[in-house]
Specification:
This protein has 675 residues and is an alpha/beta fold. It is 25% helix and 37% strand.
Length: 675
């Protein structure tokens, strides 16, 4: 409170006293106790009003103690149960959170993790996946800019996500508390099995298998791949204390069309603690044809190589590179990709008028647009000789097929001659163009369908940069390659469009997300947001039925069929307003990745502790962990002085008090006949 404020308050006291004296005592003959009391009430009321006019600032100081966070993350995956450590894990957690010294020093934060990460102090150990990377990512966000320790009660066996060793902030110490029996048991394991989802009929498809051995004896093992009661491949493998791993490469015949289920098994004449990880089921869909995509170009350009790679990611596609004069190579081609067509492409356009092959036209600085105007009427080009860079803008209302925005707004610009491009007829625009963030309302990627023939247009060169940018953004080409595959899939078929389109896989592994996507179109082939879609899933063996509603997204409906057990399932998707239905089937392969482990991964947990300058502890060392945390002087509570300033005018009770004083004075005067 300042000196001026204090002087004003003293002056207010004098003024309040003077006014009270003047009203009740100046020239007054009666100076009874009532008069004294009334004068006192008037003094308090006037003084209160003057205080409100002065409005002094009242300052209140208080001390606040902020403790260092102690994050305790508990592994809630089913591997803890498989290692028979669920009770011990719960016991260790209780020992930490109930320790008085820890509670006094730290602000304890309790979390659980499996595939996801969330705050919790109760654990059921039923998680289907383990993702320690989620722990690192979320703790960085929750305790941003703080120095704090982390205790992770886990077996260290991660089944999904990035390698967690280097994902934790090295500034913050991590103390892994290892649960599970660290005794080395003899164990044979199929560590990994790699196989393509698709193979072609009457060909052979490769299977790559990584086997792992834990033990101190030399043993011989048999590895077999069987289908039903038939063994389709068999190999002998030997292991020893110096040879712990083996890699097998086999070729299996694709002699049956359709979804084929196989079982890989490794076994030896020795009893193992865990035999679940000796078996791995896998599936391959055998297809009887391969579509050929022809990229026709008179020039060399990086776009062609990038497009070829993206298309051939799908094993059902084969790309051939053709010059404009090689018309003979275009027989039995599913899609024609015409890269920057000029008059040299005339024979191809003429030939395709009879063949009716769907086309993907890509323009650029070398394109002859006058020639292109003559050969098609979906787009009208009026172009100059000036080059321009075109950014893109995603059109969310696009509904020819389901497509998500994969970050198109971050993609580099495509280069094309400057000019005007107008659509003519039934043209759907997926990406429109912008020049320096100014929309041109012109298409950049568009699709047309006339009399059963489909055409796609990409109006600009340098799309290879899109693929590279997508890899930078996602650490993978997958999203961009799926985007290209959907374009080719749209062009590769000329069948009439169905009102209900459902997308799903033929098989899934247990523990994977099983998502069914569907689109429903009205009579104008517009995506119907008001559609009501349900799915009925029936277990082919037990006949158990489950019903789900499909939830609407931006361009499609989807249902997550979580909780289904391994087996074969039939399903039906139904649109309730029109009674349109789609029926199909899928299979869930029996594979629980959390049962693959015999021991905790002590090596990686020690690496994690070393990386963050922490220490790894075993389950019988919880007291040592608590002692380490308590004695660490790096973690101290912070004492803050909280100063709160409040203007007196905010005191509502002072206003109420003034009103009460004046009211009381009035009643007393009225009662004593002084009014």
């Amino acid at each position: 409170m300042t000196t001026n404020t204090i002087l004003l308050i003293l002056l207010s006291l004098v003024m309040a006293g003077g006014l009270s004296y003047f009203q009740y005592f100046f020239k007054a003959k009666n100076k009874s106790n009532v008069i004294w009391f009334l004068a006192f009430l008037r003094f308090l009321a006037i003084f209160g009003l003057l205080l409100l006019l002065i409005n002094p600032i009242m300052t209140k100081n208080s001390l606040e103690i902020t403790k260092t966070p102690l994050a305790i993350a508990v592994d809630n995956s089913s591997s803890i149960v498989a290692l028979k450590s669920d009770e011990k894990t719960a016991e260790l957690y209780k020992a930490l959170i109930s320790n008085p010294a820890l509670k006094e020093k730290f602000e304890i934060q309790s979390y659980q993790f499996d595939a996801d990460f969330k705050p919790s102090d109760k654990f059921d150990f039923k998680g289907k996946q383990t993702n320690l990377d989620e722990v690192a990512k979320n703790l960085k966000s929750i305790n941003k800019n703080l120095i704090f320790p982390t205790v992770i009660i886990t077996d260290g066996n991660q089944t999904t996500g990035n390698d967690y060793v280097y994902r934790f902030d090295p500034v913050n110490k991590v103390y892994p508390l290892v649960v599970g029996d660290t005794t080395t048991f003899l164990d044979l394991k199929i560590n990994q099995l790699n196989v393509n989802k698709y193979a072609f009929h009457k060909n052979k498809f490769p299977v790559e298998v990584f086997l792992q051995y834990a033990g101190d004896k030399t043993i011989n093992a048999d590895f077999t791949i069987s289908q039903g009661n038939s063994v389709v491949a068999k190999e002998k493998v030997s292991f020893s204390p110096s040879k712990k791993t083996a890699t097998l490469n086999l070729l299996l015949p694709a002699d049956k069309v359709g979804l084929q289920i196989f079982k890989a098994t490794v076994s030896a004449n020795t009893k193992e603690k865990n035999s679940y990880n000796n078996v791995k089921n896998f599936a391959v869909e055998i297809i009887d044809q391969k579509s050929t995509i022809a990229i026709v170009s008179a020039i060399n350009h990086p776009d062609i190589a990038a497009l070829k790679r993206s298309i051939e990611v799908n094993a059902q596609r084969k790309v051939i590179l053709v010059k404009p004069n090689d018309i003979n190579q275009l027989q039995d081609v599913s899609v024609l990709v015409l890269y920057q067509p000029t008059t040299a492409f005339k024979a191809i356009f003429d030939n395709n008028k009879l063949a009716g092959t769907n086309t993907f036209i890509i323009t650029g600085n070398n394109t002859d647009f006058n020639f292109l105007n003559q050969q098609q009427n979906n787009l009208v080009f009026k172009m100059s000789n000036q080059r321009e860079d075109y950014l893109n803008e995603f059109q969310s209302q696009f509904n020819l097929f389901a497509i998500d925005n994969i970050g198109f707004e971050n993609f580099p610009p495509l280069q094309n001659p400057f000019g005007t491009i107008t659509t003519n007829g039934n043209v759907s625009v997926l990406l429109s163009s912008k020049i320096r963030n100014v929309s041109t309302n012109a298409p950049l990627l568009a699709f047309a369908e006339n009399q059963g023939k489909r055409t796609a247009f990409l109006l600009g060169e340098n799309s290879w940069k899109w693929r590279m940018q997508s890899h930078i953004d996602n650490q993978s080409f997958d999203k961009y390659d799926v985007f290209v595959d959907k374009i080719i899939q749209f062009l590769a078929t000329s069948t009439s469009r169905k009102s209900l389109v459902v997308t799903h896989e033929s098989f899934y592994n247990s523990g994977e997300a099983i998502v069914i996507n569907a689109q429903y179109f009205n009579k104008n082939y517009e995506f119907d947001e008001k559609a009501r879609l349900t799915i009925t899933v029936t277990n082919a063996e037990t006949k158990q039925v489950k019903n789900y509603d499909l939830l609407k997204g931006n361009t499609s409906f989807s249902a997550n069929l979580a909780g289904l057990q391994a087996g074969k399932y039939n399903f039906t998707v139904k649109e309730l307003n029109s009674n349109t239905v789609y029926s199909s089937h899928f299979e869930i392969l029996d594979f629980d990745i959390e049962k693959q482990f015999v021991n905790p991964d002590v090596v990686k947990l020690k690496q994690l502790a070393l990386q963050t300058n922490g220490t790894a502890f075993f389950q019988n060392q919880v007291d040592d962990l608590i002692k380490t945390l308590i004695e660490n002087k790096e973690y101290k509570s912070i004492e803050k002085n909280i100063s709160t300033k409040t203007p007196l005018i905010d005191w509502v009770w002072l206003l109420i008090l003034i009103a009460a004083l004046l009211t009381t004075e009035w009643f007393i005067r009225k009662y004593n006949g002084l009014l």
